[in-house]
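ingest -> fold -> write
write: protein_1
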Amino acid sequence: MRAVVWHGVGDIRVDQVADPKIRDPKDAIVRLTRSAICGTDLHMVRGTMTGMVPGTILGHEGVGIVQEVGSQVRNYKAGDRVLIPSTIACGYCSYCRAGYNAQCDNANPNGKNAGTAFFGGPKTTGPIDGLQAEYARIPFAASTLVAIPEEVSDEQAIPVSDIFPTGYFGAEEAEVRPGDTVAVFGCGPVGLFAIASAGLLGARRIFAIDHIPDRLDVARSLGAEAINFDQDHPVAVLKDLTGGVGPDRVIDVVGVDALSPKSGPAAKESKQMADEFKRESKEISPKKKPDGDNWVPGDAPSQVLLWAVESVAKAGTISLVGVYPETMKTYPLGMSMMKNLTVKGGNCNHLKYAAKLLEMVRAGVIRPERILTKHEPLTEVLDAYRHFDKREAGWIKVELRPAA
């Protein structure tokens, strides 16, 4: 079959690889009908998430048709249409039963203390081959897969495999309540769903911070007040528009590949941090392999963390769902302590939300397919990666379709 394979930092290819096989009675084989490119995939290509094993198939967002099931998979059969959430979970350990399936005791082959197991990730997460392929092996299929309602299309379902649940998780971890004022840093796919989710949870005002015009336009269409950090200082504007108080909740959906402002009042301040940002970058991603404008790590890893802590109201809550690898060591702890802040986040427990969000989609409460701005065949995925990596206009979210 064809698959997108990681060979090294800055080196991904569409290869012919062996079809996956049932290895365990809890496995299933799924034929992918849709997959997608996620910003997390870009961390691995840029080198800001280390520990990738050459030969690993990328991708952790998928929709497909069950082809074969192991003897212990009793709730699915060949022909069933399913959603494949990003994280893998056994369904029976204490963490899964409590809804913390991202911390499943059994899914990660590195052991109980290894943390999240997800498709297409580095060695610490498995590694388990991902979903940017024609077929995929699904471990613990009975609990990992989610049935898709007949009324929900593939295009509507694919965001529920990762970006919609992660955005909802981010808003929930931020403890968004009716009437709250919320700031969302980052208007990529997850950020846009965090905005939508904050609205679903009752936020009265939502601020969206980014510097890419078309993403800010989509944020406005979701009811957010847009702030371009290349034009305005986001902390100053958030304070000014909230009477000096700041937002009650802040959601960081940017993570380690944050970019510093290149113009406007925030740029001078950021330049003063340049040496510190360079130190962080070297610590986080010692190996880089840029190719022109592609695969360039963000130049300000802790920028959004600083803005989040500076802007949020005293006794407020910060939710971190942007990816920060284990090599990231910087956090403004003293300022956070002096403001009595609550900081939460981590990897999304996708299975906790998937069925609920699919029902929202089925009922027409939300239209997640509007975030899908590009539809590309699997054979053209490398070009799609390049456009998406450069944050080009119109490339907010890329859906991949296996070629005929």
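write: protein_2
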Amino acid sequence: MLTAAHRVYHWDRRTSAISSDRLEDAALPALEPALAVYRERIGQTRGQVRNAARAALDGLRPDRVEPVVKLLDDTASYEWPKSGRWSERRVAVFEAAGARHPVLETNAAHALLGVAFPSPLPAPTETVGLLYADYPEYHRLAAFPADYSAESLRADYDLAQAQALLYSATRITVDAGGDFKHILRYARLARLLHHVERIRANPETKPAGRRWRSASRAADGDGYRFVLDGPNSLLRRTRAYGVDFARFLAALVRLGDWRLQARIELRKGWRPFTFALTSADGLGAGASPPPEFDSALEAAIARKFRRERAGWRLLREGMILELGRGAVLVPDFVFRHHDGAEVVLEIVGYWTPEYLSEKFRKLAAARGVNLVVAVPTPSPCGPAGSRPP
């Protein structure tokens, strides 16, 4: 990920819209020389490689050079001394030099390295690199992916710039027509609070009770809106969750059928800007899709049941079960019979009696759905022999 100092963005004061920088096709040829630097300079120090890459990017717009170098550096692999005693060796060399002060000849100064470092010693020109080999600037380039192309770099750049812009977000909203389960899962992994509400293509259409809505039924334009922020946002607008928003975006781009809108406050006291993205923008192109199952248990159930049995089909769909007062449940499976009957299965992994009591209290609000909750016994994280209350 980039830092805030690497951000490149564009805004429109008239509309209060802001967008992150994206590399155009014409910029791709300018990236190739920098890629060649990282492939050809194995064994050189990080500082040497970075400087060579900066020089190789002379055909790129200047404000894009440092972000590109940072991404190339993150993609590369470096080696450095793993011993924590490197600083002690430096002190030993400096103490030996102090006892012989002044050390005026290059060869005499180089010989002092033998006090702490084994032979053979490097050339005098490499003295500083040996003394400070544990410093990032002197780490040695060990490898660079051979299949990392200019297109790969562009994809990483476009996504990283969007993530960096979210560092200044105070709240984001995601409208989704599907993949509800993964969106909620990603929000939780990013440690974000979430509020969920139904959005309808036809506002006059009334919901038929508190039934769940599946991704496969979103073709009519209905979907859900996820409003994401953090605990401190309840008291004041804050940008404290910017990094969490960025982590969430990196996962969101693996999904389809979503629209994101973020409130961006670049500086305190400035008028906020609106940052908008959709799944059609192509961020994260080439990113692997989310795994079909979130746990080994879910995968085992699907494998054992197979797709159909005795007229029942096992469907792996994103869905939301509305429980009222903003509470929702995203079940793991739905079993649908050919006569139209449906049963929803929710799998509980690790649990404590308190956790189960609270979960069942929320599930009691579910209406209009056949719900089965699978709970392992004994509890994987409770006392030996713990059983559901």
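write: annotation protein_2
DSSP finds eleven helices and 17 strands in the chain.
Residues 206-212, 214-220 have pLDDT under 50 and may be disordered.
pipeline exit 0
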